[in-house]
Fold each of these.
Amino acid sequence: MSSNVCQQCGACCAAYRVSFYWGELDEAPGGKVPSTLAEKVNDHMACMRGTDCAPVRCVALGGKVGESVKCHIYEWRPSPCHEMIPGSDGCNRARVRWGLAEIE
Ligand code: SF4
Ligand code: SF4
C-alpha cells in the first residue's frame, strides 16, 4: 500500500506474508515498525501479524478490502509496503485474488 489508489484497495495487505528485516522494528535502533504488531519469522526477519496465516490480513489494516481501507501505521509501515507499487506484478496478483481489476 503506497498511494491514493490504495485507499480503495488494500488487496496486498491481505494476500501476502509481509516480512522484513527485524531492524525495521521499533525495538531496534532507528526502527519504526511497531513491534507489538509484528512477529518473529527467524533470527533476522519479522513479519506483520496476520500475514503469516490464512486467511491473510495484516493487523494494521482497517476497513474493507476493495472498498475503503486504511493502514493504521502508514507512517511506520515496513519496507515491503513502501515497495508495493500500484500496477506492479505483486499489486495486480493481489488485486486479482480479490476479484479487483488490474491496474495498468
Ligand atoms: S494491491 Fe496495489 S492498489 Fe491495492 S493496496 Fe496494494 S499496491 Fe495499492
Ligand atoms: S503495514 Fe499497512 S501497508 Fe503494510 S501490509 Fe499492513 S496494512 Fe498494509
Amino acid sequence: MYETLDTPTLVIDEEKALRNIQQMAAKAQDQGVVLRPHTKTHKSPYFAQIQSAHGAEGLMVAKLGEAEVMRRAGFLDQSIGYPLIGPLKEARLRDLLLAGVRVRISVDSLDGLASLKRVFQTTGVRIGALIEVDTGMHRCGVEDPSAVLSLAQAVEEADGIDYLGITCFGGHLASTYDKDAIVGRIREEDRLLSELARRLDDAGLHASIISEGGTIPAAFLDELRTATEIRPGTYIFNDVATVASHAAIWDECALAVLTTVVSRPSRERAIIDAGSKTLGLDGPINGSYGWVVDHPEIRLTRMSEEHGIVQPVDGRSLDLAIGDRLLIIPNHVCPTVNLHDFAALARQGQLVGEVPIEARGLVQ
Ligand SMILES: Cc1ncc(COP(=O)(O)O)c(C=O)c1O
C-alpha cells in the first residue's frame, strides 16, 4: 500500500476531496447561501484555491497566522472568527489590512470592538464586524439577546467599523450521534437565529449576514433557513465524527493516515507507528481513536505519543503482521492535519504528488 511513502503520513484522495467541495458548493447554491469555507481543516492554499474555483466566496480563518498564509497566496477576502485582543494582534491586523485584505472579524465584546477601532484609526481601512452569538456551544459569543442588540448598536456607531450581522458556530449540535436529535437541535438553532434576526430588525439593526459555522449544520442545510452564509471546514475531508453525526458517509472521507505495524507483542495486540503526535487525541468514538479502513473488526484502542495500540473488537486474534500497512481515518481530521508538514495526494489509489500544509501549527 503506497510502498514508496514513508510512514506515518497523510494521504488525501484528491477526487473525493474535490467531490466533497463540489457537493457543498452545489448545496449552498441550491439554497441561496454564501459558502465561505473554513481553512482550519486543510490549512493549505492549494485546497483553498480549489474551493474558490468551485463556488466559495472568500475564506474563513481562525488565527492571524492562517490569514497571513492565505494572504501571501493571494486570498484577499477573509473572515477571522477569533477575538483579536492586544497590541501584538492589532499590529498584525494592521499589516493584513494594509496588504489589501478585506477583513471581517467576529466580535463578542466591547474590548474586541475597541481593538478594531484602534486599528481603523491607524490604517484608515474599514473593517467588517459580525457579532458572535452563543447559540449553545458556550464558547465565545454573546448569549443574551439584549446584549447582542447593544453590542450590535455599539458596532453600528463605531467609526470605521461596518456592522454586517451575526455569526455563530454550531459545534454543540453534534454532541449526540442520534440523527433525529441532531436535526431537532438544528431546527432549534434556526429558531434562535430567526428570532434574533427579527429583534435586530425591530431595533433598526438589520443583519445582512447571518453566518453559521460547522460541517454538521451545513450537511442539514435545508433545516437552517435563516442562515445567509455557511462556514464548513471539515467537509472537505470528513472524518469519523462527521460520519457518526450523519453528515457524511465513509466513501466521502478523503483523508487517511498511512501507518505501519511495527510490533506484535501479543496475540490480540498490534502496534502501529502513529500515536497522538500523528493523529491528535480526539475521541474515542465507538471505542476507537480512528477508523481502520477495510478492517471493521479492529479498533485503535489506545495511543501514546508515537504508538497506536490496535486490538480486535471481540478478543479474537489479529490477522496483522509486522510491516503491514493500515490506513486510519482520524476521529477529528483538523487537529491531525495540523500535525503534518505535507500530505501525499492520490488518485484512484495511485500517488500523484504532495501538497504542503503551509499554515499548520500557526496557532498565533
Ligand atoms: C468559528 C468556526 N466556524 C466554522 C468552523 C468549521 O466547523 P467544522 O470543522 O465543523 O466544519 C469552526 C470549527 O471549529 C469554527 O470554530
